[in-house]
Amino acid sequence: MLLVGNGALITRDPENPFIKDGCVAINGTSINSVGATAEMRAKYPAAKFIDAKGGLIMPGFINSHMHFYSTFSRGMNVPGEPAQDFSGVLEKLWWRLDKALTLRDCYYSAITALVDAVKCGCTTVIDHHASPHAVSGSLCEVAKAAREAGIRTSTCYEVSDRDGQKIAYEGIKENIAFLDWAERENDPMISGKFGLHASFTLSDQTLEKCREAMNGRRDGFHVHVAEGPSDEADCAAKYGKRIVERFNDFGLTGPSSIFVHCIHIDEGERALLKETGTAVAHNPESNMGNAVGAAKITELMAGGITLGLGTDGYVCDMLQSYKMGNALCKHASRHPNSGWGELPAMLFGNNAEIAERAFPVKLGKLKDGYAADVIVLDYSAPTELSDKNINGHLLFGASARSVVTTIANGKILMKDRKLTELDAEEIYAKARERAKEVWKRL
């Protein structure tokens, strides 16, 4: 038995949301119970005790859309003229970077990002991978890194026609091979989806092959949708329909699928997402950085769509995405009250619901029977703290550097800001070596 106590316990359980001096009891990989620190220590006197020292005790963060492979872009000087629009960003940066990756690079870009995830208190990540010149086996390299890091990870391969039909078909095979491997492994910490890039890089022929490959499977699809306005324009010109309609025709919608961004979809597409139970992942920092616009998150959530929060490879820091999302919502709507309810619901509620569709566990709460994903933040509130205002404290007071302890699936991955499972300096040193070679290949 492991106890984490002597802190403000934020359970995210509406029946028991806040315990001023609280403690969570962990039995193996799941939460046994929560209560007052004194009560829990008396109940389990022989248990190991982690002292939160008056900080915050919370469920681990969940990231509903991430690109581990983006890690090697940090600090990179992209050759040539700067991109002038989103298409240029893809062509000049991301589609050159992913082609430069080897299988070993796939592992090191993933493990480096996972070090950051542990440090940021992120215990579950839904990843989306691409490496067109190293397709076969790439997802197992990502899974290997995830296992070593101890982070619950779902991954997939990004099928696209942009590098030719042969590589597109290799991507289809990689997705199915990994889904089969994950089923054989039966590891509750590793799962897969079927990855796709976006409508404008996917022909009907390729989508038909994807549908055939996934016939009878329930793993779901993970695909970018209407990130830039040109994606919808391309779909209308080529196929005479909107993107969500096109993807629905090929069976890509459904409760197990994640449609990423959905910035430029219309009311009819929102209704179709609601009807099919398809989840959406919002990525505010990426959307701002790529100057593609702002998703209508108020309309998406009011329409009954399960809207989660991701980082799109920019960072592993969900608190930063939370802060960015709040600001972008206000800025885009030109209303200072926007985002107060939507962003917490996305990060603390909907991300758990989306992740539960990918893993056989209950997530997002410190409650009996839920996965033992617990973090401690070194945050001493300068004003009153309660379940009524905790989201405001996290928005304006705490940061990822406040995270001092990270526990995922009952395993202590970081304690007092020191990693217990990974050697960060060794990983960073090897990653720098790999990155140099990747940059040369660009």
UniProtKB/TrEMBL annotation:
Keywords: Hydrolase. Coiled coil: none annotated. It comes from the Bacteria. Residues 57-413 form the Amidohydrolase-related domain. GO terms for molecular function: hydrolase activity, acting on carbon-nitrogen (but not peptide) bonds. This is Aminohydrolase SsnA. It comes from Cloacibacillus evryensis. The lineage of its organism: Bacteria, Thermotogati, Synergistota, Synergistia, Synergistales. The gene is ssnA.
